[in-house]
Write a structure and sequence with these properties.
- This protein has about 350 residues and is an alpha+beta fold.
- Helix 2 packs across helix 6 and helix 3 crosses helix 6.
- One of its GO terms (molecular function) is oxidoreductase activity.
- It comes from Arabidopsis thaliana x Arabidopsis arenosa.
- Keywords: Iron, Metal-binding, Oxidoreductase.
Length: about 350
Protein backbone atom coordinates (compact mmCIF):
# COMPACT_ATOMS: atom_id res chain seq x y z
CA UNK A 1 0.00 0.00 0.00
CA UNK A 2 1.25 3.47 -0.89
CA UNK A 3 0.26 6.22 1.53
CA UNK A 4 -1.27 9.20 -0.33
CA UNK A 5 0.65 12.49 -0.37
CA UNK A 6 -1.22 15.64 0.68
CA UNK A 7 0.22 18.87 -0.74
CA UNK A 8 -0.19 21.65 1.85
CA UNK A 9 0.49 24.47 -0.66
CA UNK A 10 -3.10 25.36 -1.49
CA UNK A 11 -4.16 25.42 2.15
CA UNK A 12 -1.20 27.66 2.97
CA UNK A 13 -2.13 30.00 0.13
CA UNK A 14 -5.69 30.22 1.47
CA UNK A 15 -4.45 31.17 4.96
CA UNK A 16 -7.14 28.80 6.23
CA UNK A 17 -9.98 31.26 5.73
CA UNK A 18 -13.07 30.90 3.56
CA UNK A 19 -12.15 27.43 2.39
CA UNK A 20 -13.75 26.32 -0.86
CA UNK A 21 -15.33 22.92 -1.26
CA UNK A 22 -12.13 21.43 -2.68
CA UNK A 23 -10.04 22.55 0.31
CA UNK A 24 -12.71 21.39 2.72
CA UNK A 25 -12.52 18.02 1.01
CA UNK A 26 -8.72 18.05 1.47
CA UNK A 27 -9.25 18.68 5.19
CA UNK A 28 -11.68 15.76 5.37
CA UNK A 29 -9.13 13.61 3.53
CA UNK A 30 -6.44 14.49 6.11
CA UNK A 31 -8.72 13.52 9.03
CA UNK A 32 -9.85 10.35 7.24
CA UNK A 33 -6.28 9.21 6.50
CA UNK A 34 -5.16 9.91 10.08
CA UNK A 35 -8.17 7.95 11.37
CA UNK A 36 -7.73 4.95 9.07
CA UNK A 37 -3.94 4.66 8.87
CA UNK A 38 -2.43 6.70 11.70
CA UNK A 39 0.06 8.09 9.16
CA UNK A 40 0.10 10.79 6.51
CA UNK A 41 2.61 11.92 3.88
CA UNK A 42 2.68 15.66 3.24
CA UNK A 43 4.54 18.02 0.96
CA UNK A 44 5.18 21.43 2.50
CA UNK A 45 6.85 24.01 0.25
CA UNK A 46 8.54 25.51 3.33
CA UNK A 47 10.38 22.21 4.06
CA UNK A 48 12.73 21.31 1.22
CA UNK A 49 14.73 18.15 0.59
CA UNK A 50 17.84 20.36 0.93
CA UNK A 51 16.75 21.39 4.44
CA UNK A 52 16.38 17.74 5.40
CA UNK A 53 19.79 16.85 3.90
CA UNK A 54 21.53 19.69 5.74
CA UNK A 55 20.08 18.47 9.01
CA UNK A 56 20.93 14.81 8.40
CA UNK A 57 24.49 15.71 7.29
CA UNK A 58 25.11 17.45 10.61
CA UNK A 59 23.57 14.65 12.67
CA UNK A 60 25.61 12.01 10.83
CA UNK A 61 28.74 13.97 11.74
CA UNK A 62 27.61 14.16 15.38
CA UNK A 63 26.62 10.50 15.77
CA UNK A 64 29.95 9.40 14.24
CA UNK A 65 31.79 11.08 17.12
CA UNK A 66 33.26 8.81 19.83
CA UNK A 67 30.87 7.69 22.56
CA UNK A 68 32.93 9.52 25.18
CA UNK A 69 32.28 12.81 23.37
CA UNK A 70 28.54 12.14 23.07
CA UNK A 71 28.28 11.28 26.76
CA UNK A 72 29.14 14.90 27.56
CA UNK A 73 25.73 15.87 26.23
CA UNK A 74 23.78 13.37 28.36
CA UNK A 75 21.34 14.65 31.01
CA UNK A 76 19.99 11.52 32.77
CA UNK A 77 18.87 13.67 35.72
CA UNK A 78 16.34 15.23 33.33
CA UNK A 79 15.14 11.82 32.09
CA UNK A 80 17.14 12.40 28.87
CA UNK A 81 14.53 14.95 27.78
CA UNK A 82 17.32 17.19 26.44
CA UNK A 83 20.71 16.31 24.98
CA UNK A 84 21.98 12.85 24.08
CA UNK A 85 20.40 9.52 24.95
CA UNK A 86 22.90 6.67 24.53
CA UNK A 87 22.21 3.43 22.76
CA UNK A 88 20.62 0.84 25.03
CA UNK A 89 18.57 3.27 27.12
CA UNK A 90 15.29 3.58 25.21
CA UNK A 91 13.05 0.62 25.96
CA UNK A 92 10.23 -0.19 23.53
CA UNK A 93 6.87 -0.34 25.26
CA UNK A 94 6.22 -3.78 23.82
CA UNK A 95 9.08 -5.09 25.96
CA UNK A 96 7.30 -4.17 29.21
CA UNK A 97 3.59 -4.05 28.25
CA UNK A 98 2.01 -7.44 28.93
CA UNK A 99 -1.24 -6.50 27.19
CA UNK A 100 0.72 -5.63 24.05
CA UNK A 101 2.62 -8.92 24.29
CA UNK A 102 -0.66 -10.86 24.48
CA UNK A 103 -1.86 -9.01 21.38
CA UNK A 104 1.16 -10.32 19.45
CA UNK A 105 -0.12 -13.88 19.90
CA UNK A 106 -3.38 -13.11 18.11
CA UNK A 107 -1.79 -11.31 15.13
CA UNK A 108 -1.44 -13.10 11.76
CA UNK A 109 2.19 -14.10 11.18
CA UNK A 110 2.60 -11.72 8.22
CA UNK A 111 1.54 -8.75 10.37
CA UNK A 112 3.47 -9.57 13.53
CA UNK A 113 6.20 -7.14 14.62
CA UNK A 114 9.73 -8.16 15.41
CA UNK A 115 9.74 -9.09 19.08
CA UNK A 116 12.19 -6.93 21.10
CA UNK A 117 14.59 -8.77 23.39
CA UNK A 118 16.04 -5.65 25.02
CA UNK A 119 16.55 -1.88 24.63
CA UNK A 120 16.78 -0.26 21.20
CA UNK A 121 20.02 -0.11 19.20
CA UNK A 122 19.94 3.62 18.68
CA UNK A 123 21.22 6.91 20.03
CA UNK A 124 18.95 9.95 20.18
CA UNK A 125 19.42 13.68 20.58
CA UNK A 126 16.68 15.77 22.18
CA UNK A 127 16.40 19.46 21.24
CA UNK A 128 13.55 21.64 22.48
CA UNK A 129 11.80 23.63 19.75
CA UNK A 130 9.69 26.72 20.35
CA UNK A 131 9.09 29.06 23.31
CA UNK A 132 8.91 27.73 26.84
CA UNK A 133 6.13 28.60 29.28
CA UNK A 134 7.19 31.15 31.89
CA UNK A 135 5.14 29.36 34.53
CA UNK A 136 4.64 25.59 34.46
CA UNK A 137 4.15 22.66 36.83
CA UNK A 138 6.36 20.50 34.60
CA UNK A 139 9.84 22.05 34.66
CA UNK A 140 11.64 18.85 33.60
CA UNK A 141 9.70 18.73 30.34
CA UNK A 142 10.71 22.32 29.49
CA UNK A 143 14.47 22.31 30.16
CA UNK A 144 17.28 24.33 28.57
CA UNK A 145 18.91 22.87 25.41
CA UNK A 146 22.36 21.23 25.27
CA UNK A 147 24.81 22.30 22.54
CA UNK A 148 27.83 20.06 21.74
CA UNK A 149 31.23 21.70 21.31
CA UNK A 150 32.66 21.95 17.81
CA UNK A 151 29.32 22.51 16.07
CA UNK A 152 28.99 26.29 15.60
CA UNK A 153 26.04 25.75 13.24
CA UNK A 154 24.18 23.49 15.69
CA UNK A 155 21.58 25.88 17.09
CA UNK A 156 20.73 27.46 13.74
CA UNK A 157 20.34 24.10 11.95
CA UNK A 158 18.35 22.52 14.78
CA UNK A 159 16.07 25.53 15.24
CA UNK A 160 15.55 26.04 11.51
CA UNK A 161 14.57 22.44 10.76
CA UNK A 162 12.61 22.14 14.00
CA UNK A 163 10.53 25.27 13.37
CA UNK A 164 9.84 24.23 9.78
CA UNK A 165 8.58 20.81 10.86
CA UNK A 166 6.47 22.28 13.67
CA UNK A 167 4.94 24.64 11.12
CA UNK A 168 4.01 21.66 8.94
CA UNK A 169 2.45 19.89 11.94
CA UNK A 170 0.40 22.99 12.77
CA UNK A 171 -1.05 23.08 9.24
CA UNK A 172 -1.93 19.39 9.40
CA UNK A 173 -3.46 19.93 12.86
CA UNK A 174 -5.63 22.75 11.51
CA UNK A 175 -6.73 20.71 8.50
CA UNK A 176 -7.47 17.69 10.68
CA UNK A 177 -9.52 19.80 13.09
CA UNK A 178 -11.60 21.18 10.22
CA UNK A 179 -11.98 17.69 8.78
CA UNK A 180 -13.19 16.37 12.13
CA UNK A 181 -15.78 19.15 12.39
CA UNK A 182 -13.93 21.04 15.13
CA UNK A 183 -12.85 24.72 15.20
CA UNK A 184 -9.77 25.32 13.08
CA UNK A 185 -7.61 26.05 16.17
CA UNK A 186 -8.98 23.23 18.33
CA UNK A 187 -5.62 21.43 18.32
CA UNK A 188 -3.16 24.24 17.58
CA UNK A 189 -4.39 26.38 20.49
CA UNK A 190 -3.42 23.53 22.82
CA UNK A 191 0.01 23.14 21.18
CA UNK A 192 1.16 26.67 22.08
CA UNK A 193 4.30 26.55 24.25
CA UNK A 194 4.20 22.75 24.20
CA UNK A 195 7.42 20.85 24.99
CA UNK A 196 8.03 20.08 21.31
CA UNK A 197 11.14 17.98 20.80
CA UNK A 198 13.32 17.63 17.75
CA UNK A 199 14.60 14.14 18.48
CA UNK A 200 16.77 12.64 15.72
CA UNK A 201 17.94 9.07 16.18
CA UNK A 202 21.23 7.57 15.06
CA UNK A 203 21.82 3.85 14.50
CA UNK A 204 25.26 2.55 13.52
CA UNK A 205 24.88 0.34 10.47
CA UNK A 206 28.59 -0.48 10.66
CA UNK A 207 27.75 -2.51 13.76
CA UNK A 208 24.08 -3.39 13.35
CA UNK A 209 23.38 -4.56 9.82
CA UNK A 210 21.88 -8.03 10.13
CA UNK A 211 18.39 -8.38 8.72
CA UNK A 212 15.83 -8.26 11.56
CA UNK A 213 17.97 -6.09 13.88
CA UNK A 214 15.61 -3.78 15.77
CA UNK A 215 16.39 -0.06 15.94
CA UNK A 216 13.01 0.95 17.38
CA UNK A 217 10.89 -1.85 18.79
CA UNK A 218 7.12 -1.99 18.22
CA UNK A 219 5.59 1.03 19.99
CA UNK A 220 3.34 4.05 19.81
CA UNK A 221 4.33 7.67 20.46
CA UNK A 222 2.92 9.35 23.57
CA UNK A 223 2.81 12.88 22.10
CA UNK A 224 0.27 14.59 19.78
CA UNK A 225 1.72 14.17 16.28
CA UNK A 226 5.17 12.95 15.22
CA UNK A 227 6.81 14.21 12.02
CA UNK A 228 9.84 12.84 10.18
CA UNK A 229 11.89 13.89 7.19
CA UNK A 230 13.04 11.22 4.76
CA UNK A 231 15.73 8.86 6.09
CA UNK A 232 18.60 7.70 3.86
CA UNK A 233 18.04 4.10 4.94
CA UNK A 234 14.62 2.37 4.82
CA UNK A 235 13.24 0.14 7.58
CA UNK A 236 10.11 1.82 9.01
CA UNK A 237 6.93 -0.25 9.30
CA UNK A 238 3.55 1.03 10.46
CA UNK A 239 0.35 -0.79 11.40
CA UNK A 240 -2.93 0.46 9.95
CA UNK A 241 -6.06 0.58 12.05
CA UNK A 242 -7.22 -2.70 10.44
CA UNK A 243 -4.06 -4.42 11.70
CA UNK A 244 -2.24 -4.53 8.37
CA UNK A 245 1.55 -4.04 8.52
CA UNK A 246 2.91 -1.64 5.89
CA UNK A 247 6.47 -0.65 4.91
CA UNK A 248 6.62 3.13 4.61
CA UNK A 249 8.29 4.82 1.64
CA UNK A 250 8.76 8.57 2.06
CA UNK A 251 9.22 10.27 -1.33
CA UNK A 252 12.00 12.85 -1.73
CA UNK A 253 10.83 16.24 -0.48
CA UNK A 254 7.99 14.79 1.61
CA UNK A 255 7.40 14.47 5.34
CA UNK A 256 5.78 11.64 7.27
CA UNK A 257 3.31 12.44 10.06
CA UNK A 258 2.13 9.83 12.58
CA UNK A 259 -0.62 9.98 15.20
CA UNK A 260 0.37 9.89 18.88
CA UNK A 261 -1.49 9.13 22.06
CA UNK A 262 -2.48 12.76 22.73
CA UNK A 263 -4.55 13.07 19.54
CA UNK A 264 -6.19 9.77 20.45
CA UNK A 265 -7.17 11.36 23.77
CA UNK A 266 -8.51 14.55 22.18
CA UNK A 267 -10.64 12.60 19.66
CA UNK A 268 -11.86 9.93 22.11
CA UNK A 269 -10.24 7.23 20.00
CA UNK A 270 -11.47 8.46 16.61
CA UNK A 271 -7.75 8.59 15.82
CA UNK A 272 -5.63 6.00 17.57
CA UNK A 273 -1.92 6.23 18.30
CA UNK A 274 -0.18 4.53 15.38
CA UNK A 275 1.99 1.50 16.10
CA UNK A 276 5.34 1.31 14.34
CA UNK A 277 8.84 -0.19 14.38
CA UNK A 278 12.19 0.36 12.64
CA UNK A 279 14.22 -2.71 11.66
CA UNK A 280 16.97 -3.73 9.26
CA UNK A 281 15.38 -5.13 6.10
CA UNK A 282 16.73 -6.41 2.79
CA UNK A 283 16.16 -2.90 1.40
CA UNK A 284 18.17 -1.44 4.31
CA UNK A 285 21.01 -3.77 3.32
CA UNK A 286 20.75 -2.63 -0.30
CA UNK A 287 21.02 0.99 0.89
CA UNK A 288 24.05 0.08 3.05
CA UNK A 289 25.78 -1.43 0.01
CA UNK A 290 25.10 1.70 -2.05
CA UNK A 291 26.29 4.01 0.75
CA UNK A 292 29.57 2.03 0.98
CA UNK A 293 30.07 2.32 -2.79
CA UNK A 294 29.52 6.09 -2.56
CA UNK A 295 31.69 6.43 0.57
CA UNK A 296 28.78 7.89 2.58
CA UNK A 297 28.04 7.64 6.31
CA UNK A 298 26.62 4.36 7.58
CA UNK A 299 24.72 5.98 10.43
CA UNK A 300 20.95 5.76 9.92
CA UNK A 301 19.58 9.14 11.02
CA UNK A 302 15.88 9.87 11.44
CA UNK A 303 14.90 13.54 11.54
CA UNK A 304 12.10 13.00 14.04
CA UNK A 305 10.14 15.73 15.82
CA UNK A 306 7.60 15.09 18.58
CA UNK A 307 4.88 17.78 18.61
CA UNK A 308 3.18 17.99 22.00
CA UNK A 309 0.14 19.47 23.64
CA UNK A 310 1.29 22.08 26.19
CA UNK A 311 2.24 20.43 29.48
CA UNK A 312 -0.27 22.41 31.56
CA UNK A 313 -3.13 22.09 29.05
CA UNK A 314 -5.85 19.57 29.77
CA UNK A 315 -6.13 16.43 27.66
CA UNK A 316 -9.79 15.50 27.18
CA UNK A 317 -12.10 14.71 24.25
CA UNK A 318 -12.88 17.92 22.34
CA UNK A 319 -16.20 19.20 20.98
CA UNK A 320 -18.53 16.48 19.71
CA UNK A 321 -15.97 13.82 20.66
CA UNK A 322 -16.95 14.45 24.30
CA UNK A 323 -20.31 12.84 23.43
CA UNK A 324 -18.67 9.68 22.08
CA UNK A 325 -19.51 6.38 23.75
CA UNK A 326 -15.74 5.95 24.21
CA UNK A 327 -15.16 9.35 25.87
CA UNK A 328 -15.16 7.83 29.34
CA UNK A 329 -11.98 5.93 28.37
CA UNK A 330 -10.22 9.28 28.09
CA UNK A 331 -10.71 11.17 31.39
CA UNK A 332 -9.41 14.74 31.69
CA UNK A 333 -5.75 14.93 32.71
CA UNK A 334 -3.02 17.60 32.35
CA UNK A 335 -0.87 16.68 29.34
CA UNK A 336 2.33 16.89 31.38
CA UNK A 337 0.95 14.52 33.99
CA UNK A 338 -0.04 12.08 31.26
CA UNK A 339 3.49 12.21 29.79
CA UNK A 340 5.00 11.52 33.21
CA UNK A 341 2.68 8.53 33.69
CA UNK A 342 3.80 7.10 30.35
CA UNK A 343 7.46 7.65 31.22
CA UNK A 344 7.03 5.83 34.52
CA UNK A 345 5.47 2.82 32.77
CA UNK A 346 8.38 2.51 30.38
CA UNK A 347 11.09 2.43 33.02
CA UNK A 348 10.19 4.06 36.32
CA UNK A 349 11.78 7.46 35.55
CA UNK A 350 15.17 8.13 34.08
CA UNK A 351 14.37 6.66 30.68
CA UNK A 352 12.05 8.36 28.30
CA UNK A 353 9.18 6.56 26.70
CA UNK A 354 8.90 7.78 23.14
CA UNK A 355 10.01 4.38 21.92
Amino acid sequence: MELPVVDLSRYLESSGYELGSDLLESCREVSRILKETGALLVKDPRCSAQDNDRFIDMMETYFQKPDDFKRLQQRPNLHYQVGATPEGVEVPRSLVDEEMQEKFKTMPDEYKPHIPKGPDHKWRYMWRVGPRPSNTRFKELNSEPVIPEGFPEWKEVMDSWGYKMISAVEVVAEMAAIGFGLPKDAFTSLMKQGPHLLAPTGSDLNCYNEEGTIFAGYHYDLNFLTIHGRSRFPGLYIWLRNGEKVAVKVPVGCLLIQTGKQIEWLTAGECIAGMHEVVVTSKTKDAIKLAKEQNRSLWRVSSTLFAHIASDAELKPLGHFAESSLASNYPAIPAGEYVEQELSVINLKGKKGFS
